[in-house]
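Exercise 7b. Backbone tokens:
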């Protein structure tokens, strides 16, 4: 049999054919992978139907982590909390009347106490001159000669309360008399104390303004003892001691014997020289 020989050109041709076949296969593989990545048959269907695979509807929503607020909700929640805090601050400031702190109850201004209507000029003058006419007993009181007063039942007639009184002296003996209290505009004032049978004229005129001012202001501010005497709360006034200063005298007393419990108190007096003679005036009965 004769030998078959292949020329070099045929071999070269065969090699080139194989290379081209391998290259074609590689291209097909690359195109096939891209086809699958792009969505394969579904992508072809979408292209043919006119749909765009880049629309927002195909983008998966971002799901926040469990238990965390989304970016859209966080500012709203913070805004709500800030608003509530601001409202609470405004309410607190409105209630306390302050900014940055709570108003102390002690800084709150109290309601002013009612001011007593003062007696008229004629009534003030009457109190002054009736005390001038009572110098016999007021003078003995200031000099420490009286040990006690025993008080009877007050007899009220209009704005005047007349209280029967028995005055006991330290040196012994006693006298009977009357203490007079007067109601001017709802406030009780001591007016006089005299023994029975005592006669004295009551001068007229305005009187000393400083003494009158002391009587009006101090007695208006100390109503417990005068009202207690009138109501029967106190039936006895015991004089414990007397101390005198320059133009003043203070008597330490004890009130007892009535419906009220025994109570210590003071009688305050001031002096005024009238016609060369020192006169004493009771400016207050106080607890």
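Sequence design result:
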């Amino acid at each position: 049999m004769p030998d078959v020989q292949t020329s070099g050109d045929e071999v070269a041709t065969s090699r080139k054919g194989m290379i081209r076949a391998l290259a074609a296969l590689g291209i097909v593989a690359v195109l096939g992978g891209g086809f699958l990545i792009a969505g394969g048959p579904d992508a072809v269907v979408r292209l043919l139907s006119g749909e765009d695979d880049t629309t927002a509807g195909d983008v998966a929503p971002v799901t926040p982590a469990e238990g965390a607020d989304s970016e859209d909700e966080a500012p709203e929640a913070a805004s709500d909390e800030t608003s509530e805090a601001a409202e609470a601050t405004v309410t607190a400031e409105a209630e306390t009347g302050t900014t940055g702190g709570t108003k102390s109850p002690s800084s709150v201004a109290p309601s002013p106490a009612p001011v007593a209507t003062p007696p008229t000029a004629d009534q003030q003058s009457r109190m002054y001159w009736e005390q001038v006419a009572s110098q016999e007993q007021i003078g003995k009181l200031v000099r420490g000669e009286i040990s006690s007063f025993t008080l009877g039942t007050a007899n009220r007639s209009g704005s005047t309360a007349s209280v029967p009184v028995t005055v006991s002296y330290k040196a012994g003996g006693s006298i009977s008399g009357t203490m007079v209290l007067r109601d001017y505009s709802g406030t009780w004032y001591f007016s006089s104390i005299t023994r029975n049978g005592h006669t004295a004229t009551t001068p007229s005129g305005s009187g000393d303004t400083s003494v009158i001012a002391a009587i009006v202001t101090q007695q208006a501010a100390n109503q417990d003892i005068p009202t207690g005497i009138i109501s029967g709360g106190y039936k006895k006034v015991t004089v414990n001691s007397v101390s005198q200063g320059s133009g003043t005298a203070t008597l330490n007393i004890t009130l007892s014997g009535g419906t009220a419990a025994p109570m210590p108190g003071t009688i305050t007096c001031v002096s005024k020289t009238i016609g060369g003679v020192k006169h004493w005036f009771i400016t207050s009965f106080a607890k």
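Instructor comment: The chain is about 35% helix and 30% strand. Residues 8-37 form the longest helix (30 residues).
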